[in-house]
Specification:
By secondary structure, the protein is an alpha/beta fold. It is built from nine helices and 16 strands. The strands form three sheets. Strands 3, 5, 6, 7, 8, 15 and 16 form a seven-stranded mixed beta sheet that branches. Strand 10, helix 4 and strand 11 form a beta-alpha-beta unit. The longest helix is centred in the middle third of the chain and has 21 residues. Bound molecules: NADP nicotinamide-adenine-dinucleotide phosphate (NAP).
Length: 324
């Protein structure tokens, strides 16, 4: 038997229920993983509230974790019992032990500890695809990062800077401003009191940014568009303030033939090749020290409801890890 954090119906953090479950032995192609650290992500909130669907109820929430392979089903190559592994974007992570498709697992380098791994897989793979695929950042580009002191945000700022970009980070408080600056942001916009597009025009001498990496969604959609240079790219990749309202593509023409994309890590890790390419670059960036992962909050997995409350209240910074 094992314990897992489930919802029986969508709703607030109070719906999270610490339930005893029977995991069962791994089937063909599956591994049984004893988990040591689970990453908290904003997508867990969307799934808890019902904004994003879950496969069925009751549902074990959570999308990323680190652990050790306890046993293997038939037909698995390249993995062994006792291997340290991690994964991202696989529902069912809020658990002490779980079964998982082995093809979703990545063996961890010794240089990356368990909690760091749980704090970086989903967020770091997201930063990777945004920086290398959605808009491939070039040295000299100016990029806008919203929620720059958040989990994905701190990784994005450091990595973009490492690639030679000038980074403008938007944050909700002075404390977060200091953190974003210490992690690669060259300029800060305090977007609760300052106008994002006006400040971006000031900073860029009127030109605008090559790309806006916008995880806030509804509240900042127009500001992101108004911050872009001609042919700029809006990567609207999250809904922390709510989903973006429907809009007409015609609004993109007078602003300079802009591009808008709504990417997801699910497509960017849909094949083993895509997953390994992203993980390879991420492990290298973290292993070399180009990107430091800040696990700034830890909670017992049984206290996940409080972690959700804090994430939604905008009081967390960097990554948050839940410990089984
Ligand atoms: N599409 C994808 O593939 C993908 C993958 C991973 C993550 N994401 C998205 O990336 C975002 C960041 O995820 P994360 O887990 O690293 O979270 P996070 O950035 O650590 O936390 C969310 C931050 O968003 C800001 N925010 C602004 N308005 C908010 C509001 N109304 N409610 C709550 N927060 C608000 C807050 O920072 P300030 O106080 O500085 O405003 C808050 O700390 C999320 O939107 C998530 O959905 C998307």
């Amino acid at each position: 038997m094992t314990y897992a954090m489930r919802i029986h119906q969508p709703g607030g953090p109070e719906q999270l229920s610490w339930d005893e479950m029977d995991v069962g032995p791994p089937g063909p192609g599956e591994a049984l993983v004893r988990q040591s650290a689970v990453g908290l992500n904003f997508i867990d909130v969307y799934m808890r509230t019902g904004l994003y669907p879950v496969a069925g109820l009751p549902a074990v929430l959570g999308m990323e974790a680190t652990g050790v392979v306890e046993s293997l089903g038939e037909g698995i190559e390249g993995l062994q019992v006792n291997d340290r592994v991690a994964y991202a974007m696989v529902p069912g992570a809020y658990a002490e032990r779980r079964r998982i498709a082995a093809e979703k697992l990545l063996r961890l380098p010794d240089t990356i500890d368990d909690r760091t791994a749980a704090g970086m897989m989903l967020k770091g793979l997201t930063a990777h695809y945004l920086l290398f695929r959605t808009y491939p950042v070039k040295a000299g580009d100016t990029v806008l990062v919203l929620a720059a002191a958040g989990g994905v945000g701190l990784i994005l700022c450091q990595w973009a800077r490492h690639l030679g970009a000038r980074v403008i980070g938007c944050v909700g408080s002075q404390e977060k401003a200091e953190l974003a600056k210490a992690n690669g942001a060259d300029h800060i916009v305090l977007y609760r009191q300052e106008n994002i597009a006006e400040r971006v025009r000031d900073i860029t001498g009127g030109e605008g940014v090559a790309v806006s990496y916008d995880s806030i969604g509804q509240a900042t959609f127009e500001a992101s568009l108004d911050s872009l240079r001609p042919f700029g790219v809006l990567a609207t990749y999250g809904n922390a303030s709510g989903p973006v309202e429907p809009f007409s593509p015609a609004i993109l023409a007078p602003k300079g033939s802009l591009y808008v994309t709504r990417p997801t890590l699910a497509s960017h890790t849909a094949t083993r090749d895509l997953l390994e390419e992203g993980a390879g670059r991420l492990f290298e960036a973290v292993g070399s020290g180009a990107v430091r992962v800040s696990v700034n909050q830890t909670y017992a997995l049984s206290e996940t409801a409080q972690a959700h409350r804090d994430l939604e209240a905008r009081t967390t910074t960097g990554s948050t890890v839940l410990v089984p």
